[in-house]
Amino acid sequence: MYFPVSGWFAAFVLTLVVEAPIVAFLLRRAEPDALRLGALIVFANLATHPVVWYVITQLLTVGTLGYTLVAEIWAIAAEAVFYVAAIRGIKARRAIAVAVARVPSKDFCRTGGRVDEVLGQLGACSIAR
Fold it and tell me: What percent of the chain has pLDDT above 70?
């Protein structure tokens, strides 16, 4: 399955709109500089989202349990490692908890929070990474 760059950018922005407030709230004490924290959240997503959008979609069928598990495990692990490396003093356990806490935000796209039916059909929120 091929996903065009224009579709990726819309999904990436939607991912940030849904996930960034959750992650920012959970990391606000670990990284009190709001501008730096915002940049870290964007870069963590830049490190994971294209892999889910362009690589994992070529390996597994989008929408399947296997796809979802691989995509989310990848995103959780990579983002947790990123936060541990980028935020002084944050423990791996907390970074993992923050990365896991943003997963339920994916339900935003599968339930009543449909920003755009097409993005939902493209898997924009679950390719939401």
Answer: 78
- Which pair of tokens denotes residue 16? 């940030």
**Residue 64 has which token pair?**
């399947």
Instruction: With CA atoms as reference, report the closest residue to 115 among 32, 14, 36, 3.
Output: 14
Residue in 23, 49, 51 with CA at minimum distance from that of residue 38: 23
In degrees rounded to 5, what are phi and psi of residue 39? -65, -40
Q: Rounded to whole angstroms, how far apart are CA atoms 38 and 24?
A: 7
Longest Cα separation, the chain? 41
User: Cα separation of 51 and 67, whole Å?
Assistant: 12
- Computed over its alpha carbons, how large is the radius of gyration of the chain? 14
Residue with tokens 């994916």: 106
pLDDT digits (tens, 9 = 90+) for 9-65: 888 998 899 899 999 999 999 999 999 999 999 999 999 999 998 999 899 998 888
Quote the Cα angle for 121-119-46, to 5°: 120
